[in-house]
Amino acid sequence: MFRQVFTFIILCLGTPIFAQHAPYPDKPSTHGMMLMGNETIYASHLPMFHSPHDYQIILILDLSEKHKLQYINDRKAHPKESVYTLEPENFVLPEMVNHTKHFKASIYRGHFERGGTKFIEHIPVRIKKIVYYHQFQRETTKPKQLQYLLFGNRKEQFLVHKISAKPDFDENTSVKVKDPAIRSQLLKNNYILIEFSEKDLRKPYSWKQESGTSKETKKTVRFQNHKLLYLEYKDLD
Fold first, then answer.
1. Distance between CA atoms of 172 and 181, rounded to whole angstroms?
2. How far apart are CA 45 and CA 157, in angstroms?
3. What is the rounded distance in angstroms from the CA atom of residue 145 to the CA atom of residue 200?
4. What is the pTM of this model?
5. What is the C-alpha to C-alpha distance for residues 120 and 35, in angstroms, rounded to an integer?
6. Smallest Cα–Cα separation from 166: which of 189, 141, 195?
7. pLDDT single digits (tens) 178-218
8. What is the model's pLDDT at position 1?
9. Are 91 and 98 in contact (CB under 8 A)?
């Protein structure tokens, strides 16, 4: 009797240890990411509309001090280069983002699949924070107006087009938000969803417009110093 009770207790105590989340159906693959920022390193997954790349994800990454300094110094040495990309080892994307959070990767000046220069190789990377996470759904319809995700910190702010349905485009832009209250809000919230007056007709951000509207608060958000970092149509077809 004692042995049966002891075995039952061990099984009860062991259940949480061995309990795991259900496996994701996605296959392991190389999930390239666009890198932005010096103060904080942001990574925007380079998405496609087919599995296993059908996710729009923005992350904050942690590098070692040595590799972060190497990355920042390379950006300073090549100010005209706007595209920096991360080539990680193969993994299941939602598993890595939501659970594992550690992987090895190389950093390229330029696009890692389009002739970019690898200058940091096979280093440890940690996912510090998920800024935005969304898997594309086939039944999704396009919003009536252009929508962008505004995120960043007090020193650096970015606009990334919110991808919805085919055909679409991936656009990453650096901006400066004029209102200090909005910049402070970005530290509290992961992002602010911004709407622009243009219809979402598969065209990128209109540089003639220097303001948008927060979808949540309906308040005007003003921008300056726009700089296009990355614009892609083909990979989303």
1. 23
2. 17
3. 5
4. 0.88
5. 13
6. 141
7. 899 999 999 889 999 999 988 777 777 655 678 999 999 99
8. 53
9. no
156 in helix, strand or coil? coil
- Pairing relationship of beta strands 102-109 and 117-135 according to DSSP bridges: antiparallel
CB 182 within 8 A of CB 171: no
Mean pLDDT for 95-110 is 98
Match 């990979």 to its residue by tokens: 235
Segment holding 5, helix H or strand E: helix 2-18
Percent of the residues in the chain that have a pLDDT greater than 90, as a whole number: 73
Total residue count of the chain as it appears in this document: 237
Q: Domain map of the chain by residue range? A: 27-136, 139-237
Q: Are 165 and 94 a contacting pair, CB within 8 Å? A: no
Q: What angle do CA 200, 205, 211 make, to 5 degrees?
A: 105
Both tokens of 148, joined, read 């962008």
What does the block give as tokens for 8? 């039952």
